Structures are given as structure tokens and as C-alpha cells.
Amino acid sequence: MNGPVRLSLYIGPAVPVPVSRSVLDALESVQVSTTAQRGKASGFQLTFAVSKNSPLATLFLVTGSVPIPLVRVVIAVSINGQVDVLMDGVMTDHQLSPGSGGGPSTLTISGQDLSTVMNYLPLDGVPYPAMPPEARVAIMLAKYAFLGVIPMVIPSVLLDVPIPVDQIPRQQGTDLQYITQLANDVGYTFYMVPGPAVGTSVAYWGPDIKVGVPQPALNVDMDALTNVESLSFRYESDKAALPLVIIQEPNSKSTITIPVPSVTPLSPPLGLIPPIPMRFPEVPMAAKLSPARALLIGLALAAQSGDVVHGTGKLDVLRYGRVLKARQLVGVRGAGDPFDGLHYVDSVTHEVKRGEYKESFTLSRNGLISTVPRVPV
Length: 377
Description:
mainly beta, Thrombin, subunit H, Phage tail protein beta-alpha-beta fold, 3 domains, three-stranded mixed β-sheet, 20 strands, flat
């Protein structure tokens, strides 16, 4: 797919290579979905138009019949000289729909990011003596270096290193299941980010971070400056919650209840007027955990329940001038005083066709009215 947007497609076992011109010519559409939702992998879908005698259908169907599919797919786009890797993953599903009236068949290839590879083999019982959670995560991620996986592991403030004579932690389930469990134990998250270069991905294990340099503003109803096709907001104040952490004082055995706010240095207030909490859920099993661990889990729950402003929209990437990315901040202008300002991009769905590149997106924020006087344009 040429033009203002140049799409590059790489396919191959373990090390993907650029596809031939015939494959690109047969490619009709590309869809890539990325979300900040915990435990949900990014996914992609490729749609090809193939003739009855095309070797393309046979090639993909054969590669999809192996017990462990390791057919890797990398999707990248170039806009104004800037290359962005949208997906680095593996194929998981193949569907071939015969054409009608002599028309070409439709071959649909679906897949998920490289975290899928980490979920193939259960490795129950692998010991990790005298290792904190971050060390165990780093060791598990190291075995995927041949796929270009670059670990980004943030140490937890919870220093829980079992003494080998007392306890040796052992893995439970697959690498993905155990890494996710370790993240949940300390209020962290785990996900894959494709890039920055083709053939590499960053495996992030750490806290949810909602700070950083904002992306250029999404302009609504601003005449020639408008760069979104649609954008609407809703305010769900009834969903605001204030988690309660109940810990037990070790000497007197008395219980102490600690309310956990949704605002932290890593998740600052993006709205000037926060909602009034309507629910006060207790952090499960907090009394049996150490105070530090219970508070970390409480902070993670509070960050998830604090977002009451949600936006949904769609934009033309060519008019916006760049790719809107999930898990980052973005400015909004022209939506009105309650919703202008900075928002967190929860998810994006890329839809690429010949001569067209659209993105659907969702936003979130923890209050009304902007906390900043202006946003980057």
C-alpha cells in the first residue's frame, strides 16, 4: 500500500522478512487493536483477496497447521518519514472464504502480540531461589530474546525475598500466567509494546504510568483546525470508588482501615474536579498481606476505578499527521470546558485500506475541567 501512508509487512518463522510484492498487492485491509486493559493482548487481522489458484492461500494454511504456530507478523507504517511499528506478533487463526460468481476468495489472518508465545508451555515447578519478583520476571523474559523481546522491568518497592531455607518460590503455569500473577501481587501490570525498531518489542512489567509528554491535541469543531471525525464524552460519576485497605497491627491484632485515593505521582489528577466516591470496596485478603503489598494492590485498584470521564472517537491519521498511540496522554480542544485538557488513551484500533488510514480510540480521565491552561498542538 503506497501513497502518503506506506505500509510494510514482514512475515516469517521467528525472524520475519519483508513479503513479496504479490502478497502486498493481495492485501486488502489491516486492522490492529491495542488496549491498556489489564490482561488483554493486542491483536491484528489481515485480509487478502486471493484467486483460486493463488499459492498464497496454500502457504498460509500450511503454516497454520503446525501444533505451535510461530509464524511471526510485523506490521509497520511510515507517515511523513516517521516509522511506527503497529504490531509484532504471531498468527493464531486462518479463515478462507471462497468467492462467489468467479470472484476472488477472501483469506483472513488473525493473531496476537508476542505475549501469546509466552503462553504456550506450562513450566510448573521451575524454582527461583532467593529472587525478588522482578528478578524472576527478568529471567523468564530473557528466554525470548531470540524474538527481539527487550525487557523493561521496574523493581517493586515491596522487597519480598524468601530465604531459601524457608521457602523457594516455584513457577505456576506458563511464563505469561506467572508473570501476570507476580504483577498482580504487587499492583503492577504487564504488556508488550511493538518496536521501537522492526523486529523488536518491549516487554513492560511495572506500575501503570499516566504521565509523560502528551501527543498533539485532538481538535473538535474548530473549523479548519478540526482533525477528528467524531469525538463524544460521557461522565459516569456513579462508578467512582474509594478502595479500603484493612490491615492488622501485628502486636495488638487490631485492624486499621486505610482509604486509598486514585491520585498518585504516577497517576496525577487530569481533571480539576474529581468525582465523589459512591462505592467503598475492600481490597480482598488485605489483612493477610504485608501493609506495603496491600497498599500497592489498593493503589492499582484505585487507579482503575478513578476514571469517570470516558471519550470515544475516530480520526483520519493523514489529517491528524501522525499515529495516535495507546497508553499515552493526548490533549483535547474544542469539546467544551468540562472535557478539554489532557486525557489518557485507553485503546486504539488501526484500520488501514488502500488510500485510507483511520483510527478509532477511547479516552479516560479522573475528573472534569482541565488542570492545564493549554495542551500541545
